[in-house]
Every structure is written in structure tokens, then in C-alpha cells.
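Figure 3 (text version): C-alpha cells given as input.
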């Protein structure tokens, strides 16, 4: 279930491409062209996960509203769009929409040499956990600024519009419904982030965050901005 957001929102699609799908496949270029031609399209960044470069890709597509994306899904061209992509994929894409707190900071994170995607999940409807996580993520950003994290280029965060259903979110660790909080940060390199994770400043700030969440995952991507017929490396 999702609410209706009437301001720009970023669709984050995690796409499991087959290991034999080359990044230069013309179907991918055509797919990005199709997306960029839709009413309400604002920007598209895409990139392979550095942890699994031959399979998983993240596409971050910003629309004027969530309704603009839904209008594309309801359009006559959407079925052919999926049919073209289907043979290149090893399963369905996982899609969540995020209204980031700071769109400019999100763009800077996507344009960094390495973009960190850190997703934290709480149980659906847990207002207390939601409030606590917001405060602790805010504190985490304060620590990054105050400690002058080496190689950090800033970032932002936002709550997913939709509920997700994942293992570990239900009672006893079973599958259950939850809400996702996505933090995106830009780094000079994946190694710079890994080095900062070893500092006492980071360890002290992340521990309270981990106390609140039921499940989390983190990865890095080298994102590229799609620019009307060509993908530009933004790092």
C-alpha cells in the first residue's frame, strides 16, 4: 500500500540482470530512452553494484510525481517495454519510491564516484520505531559532518512510499510487512567508505541505528547519469 505523493519522487529499481547481459546491450539503451521520453520524467541514474557487478543494477529514476510513473505503467507502451527487458533479467525488479529529504543532495550522491545505498527496515505501522529511526539517522548525518568523514560527499534519506514484505520483518524473524528507510551517500571510493566504517565516530553513531531496525542491507554502485541517448559517467 502506498500514499499519494504530489512532489518529485525517486523510483529505485533493483534489477537482477543475467550474468551474460552486457552493460552496452542495445535493449538497455532503448529502455532508458523509453523511460526518459515519458511525461513527468526528470532524471535517471543507473549503475552496477560494485559488490556484484555482473548481475544486480540499481536504476534511480526521478519523476515529477508518483502518479507520473503510474501513468507510464498504465500506458500502451509499458507492456512492450517489459517484454523487451524480460529476456535480459534473472527475475522481477524490486521497486520502491522514495521522496528524498534533499533532492539536490541525492543527485550529488548519485554523481559521486561511489554511491552508497543503505536500506533500513522497520515493521509496518510501528510509529515509535519510525520516530526513533528518524532521530538516529539525523544524528548519524550530524556525526558525519562533525567528524569530517574522509572521502564523504554528503547524502540524504527518505522513507519508501510502499510497504515491503521481507523475511525477518515478521514475528520470530518470519516474513512480514515493513517500511524501508533508504540512505544514499556519495563517496570518493568504496574504500573511503569502508575506512570510515572502522572509525570510533562511525561505530558510536551507527550502533543506536542498528538497535531500532529489524533488517538492513548496504551496497555501493558506480552510477551513471542518462543524458538523452548517452550514459555519462558522473564520477
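Below: residues designed for each position.
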Amino acid at each position: 500500500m502506498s500514499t499519494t505523493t504530489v512532489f518529485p519522487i525517486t523510483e529505485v529499481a533493483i534489477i537482477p540482470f543475467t550474468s551474460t547481459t552486457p552493460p552496452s546491450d542495445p535493449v538497455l539503451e532503448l529502455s532508458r530512452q523509453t523511460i526518459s521520453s515519458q511525461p513527468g520524467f526528470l532524471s535517471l541514474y543507473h549503475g552496477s553494484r560494485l559488490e556484484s557487478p555482473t548481475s544486480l543494477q540499481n536504476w534511480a529514476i526521478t519523476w515529477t510525481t508518483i502518479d507520473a510513473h503510474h501513468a507510464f505503467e498504465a500506458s500502451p507502451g509499458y507492456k512492450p517495454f517489459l517484454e523487451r527487458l524480460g529476456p535480459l533479467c534473472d527475475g522481477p525488479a524490486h521497486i520502491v519510491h522514495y521522496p528524498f529529504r534533499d533532492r539536490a543532495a541525492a543527485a550529488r550522491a548519485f554523481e559521486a564516484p561511489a554511491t552508497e545505498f543503505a536500506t533500513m527496515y522497520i515493521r509496518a505501522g510501528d510509529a515509535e520505531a519510525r520516530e526513533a529511526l528518524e532521530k538516529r539517522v539525523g544524528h548519524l548525518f550530524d556525526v558525519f559532518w562533525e567528524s569530517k568523514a574522509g572521502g564523504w560527499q554528503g547524502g540524504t534519506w527518505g522513507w519508501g512510499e510502499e510497504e515491503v514484505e521481507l523475511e525477518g520483518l515478521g514475528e520470530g524473524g518470519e516474513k512480514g510487512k515493513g517500511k524501508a528507510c533508504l540512505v544514499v551517500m556519495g563517496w570518493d571510493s568504496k574504500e573511503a567508505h569502508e575506512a570510515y566504517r572502522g572509525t570510533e565516530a562511525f561505530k558510536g553513531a551507527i550502533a543506536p541505528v542498528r538497535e531500532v531496525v529489524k533488517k538492513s542491507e548496504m551496497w555501493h554502485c558506480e552510477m551513471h547519469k542518462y543524458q538523452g541517448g548517452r550514459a555519462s559517467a558522473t564520477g
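The longest helix spans residues 127-146.
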